[in-house]
């Protein structure tokens, strides 16, 4: 009898667990919300000289139906400084995010910039990448110093 009651209890618990409503964590998107669309999500600096101008601009458009407010921009490294727009970007209007990479560091880089806003996609990632090389004049001076010895 104990086995029957135990099996009946286990069956009841199993049935109860399976009978629970399957809830999904769907996020409802406001059809009037702002939408941020970038011209490009990756800016490739290519090969640039050390201490060259590290400023680049991500251009975007608010294709939504309400003002786009960028609340915060965060970079993956202190060597990358993003500058957010101060004013809201109205529907149908263009905006820019200026990014400055510290080109005093030699070698390759691949950095992520995360934009936080009131858009349908509340956080959006864009990237910069490239290779910082020694200035050509410094390389020539080093070669001539080695060959004159």
UniProtKB/TrEMBL annotation:
Keyword terms of this UniProt record = Signal
List the InterPro entries hit by this protein, alphabetically.
DUF1573, Ig-like_fold
The protein's matches in Pfam families, at most eight in alphabetical order, are given as:
DUF1573
Extract the signal peptide range. Answer: 1-19
Lineage: superkingdom: Bacteria
Q: Does the keyword Transferase apply?
A: no
**Any idea what this protein is called?**
DUF1573 domain-containing protein
Higher taxonomy: Bacteria, Pseudomonadati, Bacteroidota, Flavobacteriia, Flavobacteriales
């Amino acid at each position: 009898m104990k086995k029957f009651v135990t099996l009946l209890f286990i069956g009841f618990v199993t049935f109860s667990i399976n009978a629970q409503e399957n809830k999904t964590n769907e996020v409802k998107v406001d059809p009037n919300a702002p939408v941020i669309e970038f011209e490009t999500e990756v800016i490739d600096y290519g090969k640039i000289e050390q201490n060259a101008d590290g400023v680049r601009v991500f251009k975007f458009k608010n294709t939504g139906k309400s003002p786009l407010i960028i609340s915060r921009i965060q970079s993956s490294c202190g060597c990358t400084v993003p500058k957010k727009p101060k004013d809201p970007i109205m529907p149908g209007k263009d905006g820019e995010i200026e990014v400055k990479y510290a080109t005093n560091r030699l070698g390759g880089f691949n950095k992520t910039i995360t934009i936080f806003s009131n858009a349908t996609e509340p956080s959006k990632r864009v990237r910069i990448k490239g290779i910082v090389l020694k200035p050509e004049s410094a390389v020539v001076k080093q070669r001539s110093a080695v060959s004159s010895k």
